[in-house]
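Demo today. Your pick:
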Amino acid sequence: MEAPLGEFFVEDRDGPILLLATGTGFAPRQSVILDHIAWRLNRARHLYWGGRPLEDLHARTTIQAWTGRYPWFRFTPVLSRPHPG
């Protein structure tokens, strides 16, 4: 077994943060969001998280809570197999 390689961080700059993820790639983005919540940073963030059906996005309840609580956070699900309608 080989562990994942690489680093993930957000540079200290002005402007919005665009977070892109699919599947379990949400985990490091979640860490960034939670860190910014803990530090009470209000820099705009927009998460695009891809999956097949909406049910693949396992943290929907948490993300919906963030969108309701933090005006700097926006979320767009990106689905390859959305439900009809």
Notes: The first strand starts at residue 17 and ends at 22.
